[in-house]
């Protein structure tokens, strides 16, 4: 895309406008109150509007001056695997239990790096499993089933 | 109670074997995360917060404080040996420290950094002990308007000190404030921005936000550009400073300690600013300014003393006012709250063992750090050879387990993923994450004090300028923001931060 504007400014400004608009619009549904007795909606409406204004200002400032240099490519594989791991951990910790979840999470997270292969990821997963068991379960007494209900027959 | 008796009480707490053990664990972990680039004290403390829940309050705070100032020591090792700041405040140390290492003087550089830090830490802990009690007494007279103005001051100063675009820093603060408002309204109990999710009624989990924005986002950032680092110096020999070295570092250490102690109290990253300030001061005062950048020992000793002094004095606003000066202190607020203690001017009277115990432990911790960092330097050099591809899966898994263990709540882990991606995008687009976290912690306080002040004044906003202390604080806040936008100073500020890049 050959646009003469700072993509960083456009994108970050856009994020701020989106967040600000959400908070301000949602807060309009709460009681606004008066300056004397502010309702739950007062601060969010004011701050949300300020955030929208700041976002627009950032976008306007970014127009007409492109970013210097190119940013590195977005690491899609890393983002998918790391965030996927976190979501998987949340979804499966109760069902699968501590050991399988830590092993699978560590394995998947390790694969987010191009410098790891299947074998090194498996070694990292095994090592982390032992380490986490010692630190969190033995050392700190975290109460989670080691093998969860999904795996019991 | 006079100072001596109080310190006696503090040492009796700090010398408790359990506390000594946790102090040691803290400084050890701090050095470790300081040494390893890609993981800093903010993410570490965030992950360890849930664990400290089971410890007594003194022990927990002693350990967390140890992690923080320990990281200041560890960061310099990485800066000197591989020219990468292990911790952001060590960025300046890399300039001359790495050159010294290349000239075969890694040992004296490390020694100057450690001894300077030790001296600064010792003096700054004393300043903390001397100045915190009177400040806390003054703060007891603060009402809602004063607190509101103080929080505004803290937030705006943090913008003036952040690098990059001021507009973006301001937007990050406002976004943080808004995120802090998620949950039930304190006055009416109305649930706000909860999507009907029961877990959100108590607000977003602080640890999840911190781990997402500082831990996960940082990992994604590092995965953009994977290069394994190289350790130039495999063995460090001869740690002794020559008589000439000693003569050269005395001045920089003393000035660095002074600068750091003062700037550390400022909200918003005073410890980073202080090392830059010390470096430029030493360069200006030096009779041989040409040596700077080519391995001047003054350029290592000064900034390292400054950032360690600042690390200790940045506890002053937290312990006396309950206002965190930067994200790590914001996490300390979280630690206090987990323990059921409200940080603020009352801590010193209601929890004297905690207050004085933490201060006394700083001397013990600093002594341990000198021992850890000088004779055991070989161990840390080895640590530097742990590849990042092994390190980051561990951080991801620890983050999930740690956050889950706070209240066995799966929702908090989903929140990590959300803030990880939002944080990554914002950092990629040139926004600093620190102001967001500061805003997030201060948001509820800001709203509460604003609403209370307006009720006191019956809706008249003049209350903020008619009360002298509040008016002074607001004037300072205005000055801070003016300073940041004035073109002349703005250019200077950019120059300072260019060196960091």
Q: Can you put this structure into words, describing what you see?
A:
Chain A is an all-alpha fold and 153 residues long. Chain A has helices spanning 7-27, 42-62, 76-96, 98-110, 118-139. In chain A, helix 1 runs antiparallel to helix 2 and helix 3 packs antiparallel against helix 4. Chain A starts with 6 loop residues before the first helix and ends in a 14-residue tail after the last helix. The model of chain A has no long low-confidence stretch (mean pLDDT 87). Chain B has a two-stranded antiparallel ribbon. In chain B, helix 4 (57-82) runs antiparallel to helix 14, helix 6 runs parallel beside helix 13 (315-321) and helix 7 (144-161) runs parallel beside helix 22. The chains are: A mainly alpha (153), B mainly alpha (501).
Order of helices and strands of chain B: HHHHHHHHEEHHHHHHHHHHHHHHH
Total number of helical segments of chain A? Answer: 5
Order of helices and strands of chain A: HHHHH
State Rg of chain A. 23 Å
**Judging from the principal axes of the Cα atoms, what is the shape of chain A?**
flat
- Describe the oligomeric state of these chains in a short phrase: heterodimer
Q: State the total count of DSSP E strands of chain B.
A: 2
Please bin the fraction of helical residues of chain A.
55-70%
Q: From the alpha-carbon coordinates, what is the Rg of chain B to the nearest angstrom?
A: 22 Å
Largest sheet of chain A: none
Main sheet characteristics of chain B: 2 strands, antiparallel
Number of strands of chain A: 0
């Amino acid at each position: 895309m050959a646009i003469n504007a700072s993509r960083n400014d456009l994108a970050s400004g856009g994020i701020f406008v989106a967040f600000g608009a959400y908070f301000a619009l949602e807060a309009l549904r709460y009681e606004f109150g008066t300056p004397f007795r502010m309702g739950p909606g007062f601060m969010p409406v004011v701050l949300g509007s300020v955030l929208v204004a700041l976002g627009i200002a950032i976008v306007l400032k970014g127009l007409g001056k492109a970013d210097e240099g190119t940013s590195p490519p977005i690491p899609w594989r890393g983002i998918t695997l790391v965030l996927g791991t976190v979501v998987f951990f949340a979804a499966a910790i109760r069902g699968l239990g501590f050991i399988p979840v830590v092993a699978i999470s560590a394995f998947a997270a390790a694969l987010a790096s191009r410098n790891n292969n299947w074998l090194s990821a498996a070694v990292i997963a095994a090592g982390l499993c032992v380490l986490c068991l010692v630190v969190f379960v033995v050392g700190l007494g975290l109460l989670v089933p080691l093998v969860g209900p999904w795996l019991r027959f | 109670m006079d100072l001596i008796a109080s310190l006696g009480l503090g040492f009796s707490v700090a010398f408790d074997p359990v506390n000594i053990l946790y102090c040691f664990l803290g400084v050890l972990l701090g050095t470790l995360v300081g040494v390893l680039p890609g993981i800093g004290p903010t993410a570490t403390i965030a992950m360890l917060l849930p664990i400290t829940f089971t410890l007594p309050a003194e022990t927990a705070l002693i350990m967390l404080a140890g992690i923080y100032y320990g990281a200041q020591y560890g960061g310099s090792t990485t800066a000197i040996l591989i020219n990468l700041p292990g911790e952001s405040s060590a960025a300046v140390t890399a300039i001359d420290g790495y050159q010294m290492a290349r000239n075969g003087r890694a040992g004296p550089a490390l020694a100057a950094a450690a001894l300077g830090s030790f001296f600064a830490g010792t003096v700054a802990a004393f300043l903390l002990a001397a100045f915190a009690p009177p400040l806390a007494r003054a703060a007891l007279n603060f009402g809602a308007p004063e607190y509101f103005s103080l929080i505004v001051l803290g937030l705006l100063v943090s913008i003036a000190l952040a690098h990059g675009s001021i507009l973006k820093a301001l937007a990050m603060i406002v976004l943080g404030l808004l995120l802090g408002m998620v949950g039930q309204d304190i006055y009416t109990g109305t649930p706000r921005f909860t999507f009907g999710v029961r877990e959100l009624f108590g607000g977003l989990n602080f640890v999840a936000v911190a781990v997402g924005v500082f831990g996960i986002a940082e990992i994604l950032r590092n995965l953009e550009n994977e290069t394994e680092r190289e350790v130039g110096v495999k063995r460090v020999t001869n740690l002794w400073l020559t008589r000439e070295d000693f003569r050269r570092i005395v001045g920089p250490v003393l000035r660095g300690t002074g600068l750091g102690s003062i700037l550390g109290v400022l909200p918003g990253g005073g410890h980073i600013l202080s090392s830059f300030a010390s470096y430029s001061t030493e360069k200006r005062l030096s009779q041989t300014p040409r040596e700077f950048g080519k391995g001047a020992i003054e350029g290592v000793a000064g900034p390292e003393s400054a950032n360690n002094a600042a690390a200790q004095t940045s506890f002053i606003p937290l312990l006396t006012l309950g206002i965190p000066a930067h994200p790590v202190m914001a996490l300390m607020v979280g630690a206090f709250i987990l323990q059921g203690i409200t940080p603020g001017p009352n801590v010193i009277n209601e929890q004297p063992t905690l207050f004085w115990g933490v201060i006394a432990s700083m001397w013990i911790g600093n002594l341990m750090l000198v021992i850890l960092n000088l004779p055991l330097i070989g161990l840390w050099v080895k640590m530097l050879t742990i590849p990042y591809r092994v390190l980051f899966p561990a951080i991801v898994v620890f983050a999930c387990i740690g956050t889950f263990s706070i209240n066995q709540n799966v929702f908090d882990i989903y929140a990590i993923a959300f803030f990880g991606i939002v944080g990554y995008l914002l950092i990629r687009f040139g926004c600093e994450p620190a102001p967001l976290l500061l805003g997030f912690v201060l948001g509820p306080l800001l709203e509460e004090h604003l609403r209370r002040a307006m009720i006191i004044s019956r809706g008249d906003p003049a209350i903020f300028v008619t009360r002298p202390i509040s008016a002074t604080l607001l004037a300072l806040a205005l000055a801070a923001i003016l300073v940041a936008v004035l073109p002349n100073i703005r250019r200077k500020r950019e120059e300072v931060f260019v060196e960091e890049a």
